[in-house]
């Protein structure tokens, strides 16, 4: 099944562009599904960064987040795309996020990795198991 981006396309693109806009105070957007459907919608946006966003991630859902991290020292912004699969989320939408990035953004940007992790943090279907990520000094979200 593919993600339906058409129903709420304008709101999705507007939220994405607002996060990208350095003049905007909004620095994250959270996307999720409408009920049990494959229709993607904007769930929330915010101005208080990763801590505020983390509080909105739901352990019972599959969600996608787009976050701008501003570096005040360099003046450079970094952008992070999060594919969140809570413990209670279903496997029905696993693997759809890359298609969503490619179809929604329009910038030609693609996701570099999309894999679900099991309860021990090991990848299912992806090249980076938890142990490898930790060995490279990367932070693994639990």
Automatic annotation (TrEMBL):
<dbReference type="GO" id="GO:0005884">
    <property type="term" value="C:actin filament"/>
</dbReference>
<dbReference type="GO" id="GO:0030833">
    <property type="term" value="P:regulation of actin filament polymerization"/>
</dbReference>
<dbReference type="GO" id="GO:0051015">
    <property type="term" value="F:actin filament binding"/>
</dbReference>
<dbReference type="GO" id="GO:0030425">
    <property type="term" value="C:dendrite"/>
</dbReference>
<dbReference type="GO" id="GO:0030027">
    <property type="term" value="C:lamellipodium"/>
</dbReference>
<dbReference type="GO" id="GO:0045773">
    <property type="term" value="P:positive regulation of axon extension"/>
</dbReference>
<dbReference type="InterPro" id="IPR002108">
    <property type="entry name" value="ADF-H"/>
</dbReference>
<dbReference type="GO" id="GO:0048812">
    <property type="term" value="P:neuron projection morphogenesis"/>
</dbReference>
<dbReference type="GO" id="GO:0014069">
    <property type="term" value="C:postsynaptic density"/>
</dbReference>
<dbReference type="GO" id="GO:0030427">
    <property type="term" value="C:site of polarized growth"/>
</dbReference>
<dbReference type="GO" id="GO:0045211">
    <property type="term" value="C:postsynaptic membrane"/>
</dbReference>
<dbReference type="GO" id="GO:0098974">
    <property type="term" value="P:postsynaptic actin cytoskeleton organization"/>
</dbReference>
<protein>
    <submittedName>
        <fullName>Putative cell migration</fullName>
    </submittedName>
</protein>
<dbReference type="GO" id="GO:0030864">
    <property type="term" value="C:cortical actin cytoskeleton"/>
</dbReference>
<feature type="domain" description="ADF-H">
    <location>
        <begin position="2"/>
        <end position="142"/>
    </location>
</feature>
<dbReference type="Pfam" id="PF00241">
    <property type="entry name" value="Cofilin_ADF"/>
</dbReference>
<dbReference type="InterPro" id="IPR029006">
    <property type="entry name" value="ADF-H/Gelsolin-like_dom_sf"/>
</dbReference>
């Amino acid at each position: 099944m593919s993600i339906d981006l058409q129903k709420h396309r304008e709101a999705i693109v507007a939220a994405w562009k607002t996060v990208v806009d350095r003049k905007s105070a909004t620095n994250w957007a959270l996307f999720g599904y409408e009920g049990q459907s494959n229709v993607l919608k904007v769930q929330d946006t915010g101005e208080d960064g990763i801590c505020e966003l983390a509080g909105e991630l739901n352990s019972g859902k599959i969600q996608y987040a787009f976050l701008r991290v501003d570096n005040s020292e360099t003046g450079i912004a970094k952008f992070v795309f999060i594919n969140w699969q809570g413990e209670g989320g279903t496997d029905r939408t696993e693997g759809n996020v890359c298609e969503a990035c490619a179809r929604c953004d329009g910038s030609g940007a693609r996701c570099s990795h999309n894999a679900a992790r099991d309860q021990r943090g090991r990848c299912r279907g992806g090249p980076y198991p938890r142990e490898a990520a930790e060995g490279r000094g990367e932070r693994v979200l639990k």
